[in-house]
Amino acid sequence: MLKGLALTPPIIGRISIGRVVERGGKRLPEKDDEFTVTSQVQGKDGWVSHPVDEALRSGATGAKLRAIPIRLLFDDPDLNLRAAYSLFDRKSGRPVCVGDGETCRRATADGVQQMLCPAPDSCEFSSGGCKPFGRLNVRIGDDDELGSFVLRTTGFNSIRTLATRLRYFHAVAGGRLSTMPLELRLRGKSTTLSHRAPIYYVDLTVRSGSTLIDTITTAHSDWEIREVAGFRQAALDQVARDGLAHGSFEESAEEGAAIAEEFYPPGNVDEVLGDASIERPGKPGNSNLAVKLAGRMRATGLPEDSHRTQLSDRQPPASA
User: Fold this and answer.
1) Among 18, 96, 184, 217, fewest CB within 10 Å belongs to which?
2) The organism sits in which domain of life (predicted)?
């Protein structure tokens, strides 16, 4: 096996909440309020629609595709959803630094090194370009039981909600997460920070018309059928775990170029394809400002967290 090559779950399609459009001579992400399922092929008008997309829409209630029936590949929640603070080189598309808030792997002139990770708000290296980045792999249909559709997101609400749901379902089903019939659902909410505009994020629920008890019963029944047939889920999880650990970064430079275009656009662009509106607290640029103020505090001998009070004064007041 090639050294340093991460073995990621096989991808046969993408799930997005928007598209990249050309605006003012630049290719920028544009938000949407529904799911779109695409292939991995791009045409002149963007990603080519996957046949699954049409099939889902023909059975959807209403004009918008806001719910997708899915199953998961793995029992381990952290294999289905991998989330990390990530920084990409916008020009080359190469991953530069990936961390979890405690430690990170960073590409340097001397190779990939492990360092402390202070998280984006306190990281001077990232200069505000680092974001939470999550990848959720799911199965749609039964045509390829080891192939997956990937949902990528930099939305904090989606990452937190999906991570929580996965752990809850894993707990109540006794670890039988891979055989639970579930549903990806697009939800909306408004906050003062979004100026009352709707924020769309991804949730994971039991399927419409079903109950949690029905879902757990099906999960255990399907698990027993697969086990009798010789399907070894624990072995699959371990192989996937080892494969992901085989490389320093999950994305290659080829994949990173498309990811950087969609999720790490130049300038203060808030509409990203993983979540269909602003999901970060504060206004664009606050992360850079926090870094600059922290540096200034150190230079003057003041405590570094003094800048947080100054930043909080810049936030818009909550409406009554």
Assistant:
1) 217
2) Bacteria
More confident residue, 278 or 191: 191
Q: Three-class SS string for 111-176?
A: EEEEEECCCHHHCCCCCCCCEEEEEEEEECCCCCCCCEEEEEECCHHHHHHHHHHHHHHHHHCCCC
Q: Calculate the alpha carbon distances from 299 to 289, 305, 311 in Å.
A: 15, 13, 18
The torsion region of residue 223 among left (phi > 0), alpha (psi -120 to 50) and beta comes to alpha
Residue pLDDT, tens place only, 243-257: 998 877 887 766 777
pLDDT tens profile 173-219: 999 999 999 999 999 988 777 677 888 999 999 999 999 999 999 99
Residues facing residue 51 across a β-bridge: none
- Residue 116 identity: L
What local confidence, expressed as pLDDT, does residue 273 receive? Answer: 45
pTM confidence score: 0.78
- Give the residue among 56, 36, 35 at the shortest CA–CA distance from 45: 36
- At position 309, the amino acid (one-letter code) is T
Longest dimension (CA), the chain: 68
The one-letter code for the residue type at 282 is G
Q: What is the pLDDT of residue 171?
A: 98
Dump the DSSP string for 200-252: EEEEEEEPTT--HHHHHHHHHHHHHHHHHHT--HHHHHHHHHHHHTTBS-SS-
- Report the C-alpha gap between 102 and 82 in whole angstroms: 16
Token pair for residue 217?
């019963």
Q: Measured between alpha carbons, how far is 160 from 247 in angstroms, rounded to an integer? A: 25
pLDDT tens digit sequence for 289-298: 444 444 444 4
